[in-house]
Amino acid sequence: MSGLRHFASAKVFIRAQHYDGILFMEQPVLEVRDLTKTYRSGERTLTVLDSVSLSLTPGSYCAVVGPSGSGKTTLLGLCAGLDRPTSGSVFLDGVLLDQLDEDQLAGVRSESVGFVFQTFQLISTLTALENVVVPIELRAEIRVRSRARELLDQVG
């Protein structure tokens, strides 16, 4: 049994807002519908993700948990537009990623996607400030170094 759909330990916490006794659900920032990812090798087909669906609203938390090789990284890559699903849909801020070309996907990733890794993913030959400068320069911001310092000050 492979694929994220089969994990009982995956948890999604969704936050809702109440105003005067009326429940308002926020629009999802990420919505995954029936996502499947398979890989072919000769006549063998390996299903890594099997009909995964989830919806995350702004401010919600999600833990993707499972053993090595179970599809966690594949799911994250598909949600970020780094790879294309075999079937199913990924919406990021209401945009269907399947309809975007590679340049458009790069723009979406630059503006809307960020990963927090378990270990540092820094370029070892650069200082902390220089590591922060790299993605800011890629976004063509004008005040690159001052913006990098502001961001470093925010996290300590």
Automatic annotation (TrEMBL):
<dbReference type="InterPro" id="IPR003439">
    <property type="entry name" value="ABC_transporter-like_ATP-bd"/>
</dbReference>
<dbReference type="GO" id="GO:0005524">
    <property type="term" value="F:ATP binding"/>
</dbReference>
<dbReference type="InterPro" id="IPR027417">
    <property type="entry name" value="P-loop_NTPase"/>
</dbReference>
<dbReference type="GO" id="GO:0022857">
    <property type="term" value="F:transmembrane transporter activity"/>
</dbReference>
<protein>
    <recommendedName>
        <fullName>ABC transporter domain-containing protein</fullName>
    </recommendedName>
</protein>
<dbReference type="GO" id="GO:0005886">
    <property type="term" value="C:plasma membrane"/>
</dbReference>
<dbReference type="Pfam" id="PF00005">
    <property type="entry name" value="ABC_tran"/>
</dbReference>
<dbReference type="InterPro" id="IPR015854">
    <property type="entry name" value="ABC_transpr_LolD-like"/>
</dbReference>
<feature type="domain" description="ABC transporter">
    <location>
        <begin position="49"/>
        <end position="155"/>
    </location>
</feature>
<dbReference type="GO" id="GO:0016887">
    <property type="term" value="F:ATP hydrolysis activity"/>
</dbReference>
